[in-house]
């Protein structure tokens, strides 16, 4: 893996959205040529809005949407039509506007118990690996083509928070949390071994309120406990997408 991340600093949020679309479209073409499909793992919150340029010409017409497979890096354990659902956010803002086959979209199966939802999501991923739809990494974790991550104000990625034990999980593919510091409290999340097995990862941070967190993560500051966003590594390439304001505290 390439240890050093690529840091792209765009003039504005708008330019960053364009750059993210170009980056995603290029990876889509590369992986579809290479392996016949493109697995994309989504986050919630701001990311979906930043993906909006993919819905516009030329991307919407040139991307082979039929080969996309969609997963979630984390999900709030709420019904899929709840306003807090990451699936609903992605569906309303993105997935309902592109022709990805429904059978290629893998939301959680909602159940009241976060533990059960995590077990179910993990077993569905295992099945996709058994069916050779998702490859396995050298360390025997599912290897997604692209994971798109946001970063929270506390430096969290997915639902891996600085002061919660889930971030240290080494064996499971999917785990759960019932006391997320950011609401809603019950969530499931992919674990670090899975995230860090992905081929490409984009960390998309476009919020000047996160300038200090980004500077700490990229400047290698010693923070205790360490910032989850500073623990992200990709097998091929890790790219940070920042705008000028968010990058303003980088040295
Ligand atoms: O709660 C969550 O927060 C993170 C960060 O969101 P952002 O809008 O501040 O970038 C998000 O990536 C994650 O998927 C979500 O569940």
From TrEMBL:
Pathway(s) it belongs to: Carbohydrate degradation; pentose phosphate pathway
InterPro entries linked to this entry: 6-phosphogluconolactonase_DevB, 6PGL, Glc/Gal-6P_isomerase, NagB/RpiA_transferase-like
Domain Glucosamine/galactosamine-6-phosphate isomerase intervals: 12-240
Coiled coil, from the record: none
UniProt key word Metal-binding: no
Entries under PANTHER family matching the protein: 6-PHOSPHOGLUCONOLACTONASE, 6-PHOSPHOGLUCONOLACTONASE-RELATED
NCBIfam families the UniProt entry points to: pgl (TIGR01198)
Designated name of the protein: Probable 6-phosphogluconolactonase
Species in which this protein is naturally found: Rehmannia glutinosa
Lineage start: Eukaryota, Viridiplantae, Streptophyta, Embryophyta, Tracheophyta
């Amino acid at each position: 893996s390439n240890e050093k991340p690529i840091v792209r600093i765009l003039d504005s949020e708008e330019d960053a959205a364009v750059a993210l679309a170009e980056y995603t479209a290029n990876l889509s073409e590369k992986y579809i040529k290479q392996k016949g499909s493109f697995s994309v793992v989504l986050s919630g919150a701001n990311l979906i809005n930043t993906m909006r340029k993919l819905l516009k010409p030329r991307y919407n017409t040139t991307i082979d949407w039929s080969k996309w497979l969609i997963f979630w890096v984390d999900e709030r354990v709420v019904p899929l039509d709840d306003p807090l659902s990451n699936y609903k956010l992605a569906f309303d803002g993105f997935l309902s506007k592109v022709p990805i086959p429904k059978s290629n979209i893998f939301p959680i199966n909602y159940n009241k118990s976060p533990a059960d939802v995590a077990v179910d999501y993990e077993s569905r991923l295992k099945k996709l690996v058994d069916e050779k739809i998702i490859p396995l990494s050298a360390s025997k974790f599912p290897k997604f083509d692209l994971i798109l991550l946001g970063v929270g104000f506390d430096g969290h990625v997915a639902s891996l928070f600085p002061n919660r034990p889930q971030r240290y999980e080494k064996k499971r593919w999917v785990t759960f949390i019932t006391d997320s510091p950011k609401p809603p409290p019950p969530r499931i999340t992919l674990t670090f071994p899975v995230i860090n097995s992905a081929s490409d990862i984009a960390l998309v941070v476009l919020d000047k309120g996160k300038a200090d967190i980004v500077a700490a993560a990229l400047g290698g500051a010693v923070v205790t406990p360490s910032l989850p966003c500073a623990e992200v590594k990709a097998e091929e390439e890790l790219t940070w997408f920042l705008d000028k304001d968010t990058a303003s505290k980088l040295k």
